[in-house]
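Hi support team,

I'm filing this because I wasn't sure whether my run with iron/sulfur cluster finished correctly. The job status page said complete, but I'd like someone to confirm that the output block is well-formed before I use it downstream. Pasting the exact inputs I used:
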Amino acid sequence: MKLRKLYTGNVVYGELPKGCKLCLRGLKTVVFVTGLCPRDCFYCPLSAEKRGRDVFYVNERTARRAEDVVAEVLSCGSRGVGVTGGDPLVRLDRTTALIKAVKEFFGESFHVHLYTSGKTLTSEVVRKLEEAGLDEMRLHPDARDVDRVLRTIEESEPGFQVGFEIPMLPDAVEDTLRLLEKLALHESVSFVNINELEFSESNSEELRARGYKLADDWRSAEGSREAALRVLEEVSERGLSLNVHFCPAASKDRYQFRLRLYRRGTLTAMPHELVSDGGTLLKALISESCENAPPLLVFRGRLGYETSVLAAEVFGANYQLLEELPDSSKTLLNIT
Ligand code: SF4
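And here is everything the job wrote out:
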């Protein structure tokens, strides 16, 4: 089987998991169930505000209950959610309640994928997730825990897809290939996602201490991408019977995040707000209620009166161009 390079920069051997297909089109809302996790990976990219804290977010907005998730999904027009953490299985009841709620509200075809370290995975947990309606599980176990996790999956025969998701450490090509060879022998594992190793504010010290360097893009680790591509080429050469996919760090920002924002912008923009190609909201901040502009075109914003750029120009108002993110708090990006 040949490798395919997608327009997003992702490289695929075999089939892309459904959760990734939706994610790359900006059709997934991200639900951060808890910052608690039984593992302590040195490369964990979680921020200090989230790591080790029992916090609940939907697309970077604090959530209290499943209804908050439903509301955000509606604002973004998502066709699924990615349930992440920390490890969502540490808060199993919260996680299953959330899965049930979105399935009940949006229907069976609404896609739910979940990330877990697998540390607390048992047949009973698999059964509860299956009953809740989970579609896809992505495991990231400790190397010493892989066999137990595989046994659990095989014994419980889940009704959802199971895959692994791992970061590509630049010096771990051989270890990664050994893991993939092993997983290819297990029919219960359908895919492996390999992520470009990312530097974040919280993990950069640990990564540097281990000799990893920040690449020129200022976000990924030097050599991670090349190592992942070497792994994929080898997988293709060996003809492993497993779907393997490399996800570059840039695709998260350029496609998953930007396209989701763009959709949120088009669905939530006020009549005077223009959604730019980059997914931001553009509008005119006028110093006072413009005398010539019909009142229907003027809105009271948090910084003063606002109208559309077109209306400001047509009615000759002095204005400053406001640019905001279409997120829940309308983050201010620029005033020019
Ligand atoms: S399993 Fe994931 S969330 Fe948990 S410590 Fe490792 S990288 Fe962080």
